[in-house]
Hints:
Strand order of the largest sheet: 5-12-11-6-10-7-9-8
Mean pLDDT: 80
Helix content: 40-55%
Low-confidence stretches: 503-545
CATH topology of the domain at 272-500: Rossmann fold
Radius of gyration: 50 Å
Number of strands: 12
Largest sheet: 8 strands, mixed
Amino acid sequence: MELKQYLIPLRKWWWLLVITTVISAFSAYFATQIQAPQYQATAALMIGQAIEDPNPSGTDFFLETQLAQAYADIAQRQVVRQATMDVLGLSWLPEYRVSVLPSNQIIEIATVDTVPERAQAVANTLAEQLVLQSPTSEQRVDQQRQEFINDRLDNLEVQIQETENDITALQDELGNMISARQIAETSAQITGLQAKLTTLETNYATLVDNTQQGAANILRIIEPALLPSTPIGSGKATIVLLGAAIGFGLATGAAYFMEYLDDSLKSPKEISEVTGLPVIGFIAATAENSGENRRILVSEEPRSPVAEAFRALRTNLEFAGVDKPLRTLLVTSPNPSDGKTTIAVNLAAIMAQGGTRVILIDADLRRPSVHRFLDIANNIGLSDLFTSRNGFQDAVYAGVDLLPNMKVLRTGSLPPNPAELLGSAKMESILDQAKALSDVVIIDSPPFVVSDPVILAAKVDGVIIVLQPDRTNAETVKAMVEQLNRANSRVVGIVLNRIPCKQGLHYPDYLTYYAPYYTYAGHYAYINGVRQNGHGLIKNINQIENLMRELRNMF
């Protein structure tokens, strides 16, 4: 699949993408305008004292990191939340986040609130209440006992220092002694002081274990929360762009989803792949061949691009009938309102202009419309031939409002059993009579929503299927072609009707082939119109401007 085919949904639903993106962007913008500014206050705590130890071990850091994770979880528990609310006298707490820095012993408590003072107070109080949960909290240790231990530690520190000084002094004196007795006495004193020093250090270490000095499970605030002065999340432009991107993404997804659900045929290449049939005609969409505007375009505007398109269709049919002449042609379509009657009438007229004797038969005995195109009465026609009340010559219309080589067999009164009549031997006799009086017989049949086209397809030399791009369902066309094949009918090809004249990604195949032709035909029609209107002299400027405007709209 080519890249341009992936762009088809975006080009088709461009208005949906634009509207959704704009609405999303404006919605995001207004949301940022009405939203109150948010302030963030952050307090930091640290576990343990390994950072202050000159020679910390990896075990200390690992233990303190695990403790930090545990305290971060406790900070979000109800016990800490309730204690914070009680201290601040609040019935609720603003949003806050507790996180541990990666591979670290530092805990951060970040509070977000619309009131900066409240954000600061909550962050600091949460940190204080979390400290109270640690076993080394001052409120959880007996104050008097702690003072006693601290006094003993101070005393031991003095004794240890004095003992170390005495040992050093004796060791200095020992180097100057020559008496064996003095040396022995001094050595004994040094040994005694060293034993005393060991005892003092042991006692000191025991007391330290009962204090916060050197404790691993100690939690302290290292950075209290400051009063925030600048709101966070002030990147309104980023929010608006993000909203626009989300809207565009949703619209793009919706466009591709709707395109996935749409299985209508669009390009000639796609139609040929689905049906296995060639596209032999391209009829552009104009005001004259769409809706309720019914006209014989090839007669009223013989130099128009649409008339040239019917001439090309006539030529393609002549090539298709080289081996086996197409004396009888059936024009039908998968759905109503595809424009099959427009194709049948104008094809008959363009063949008549070329000198071919043509009889146009309106075989739509349910909703006939050929007489409306020709603006003639429908008082006698095909249905009357089945009752043998009239001869073929009497039923055929050949009025002065038709081309000299063109005749029409209308439907006449509508019968109650059209399928039975069209499938009878009498219908074959009527077709034989029509072929005897003409070179080509063109039959306008009902669409394939009824069985009449299948019955008629078995009686003609060729079938022309009329499709409207971007409207006809692929499965419907496939079922129609299969039905025609089962009836041993010869499908000559497909005519695309009401093709958009403006170039687009949906119809690249026929535009590549046919757009230059339409441009040339339109220019030729313009020049011819000027010559007929004034022999080279412009008599009516408004008429020329209107004609140019129509040509610009067409291409």
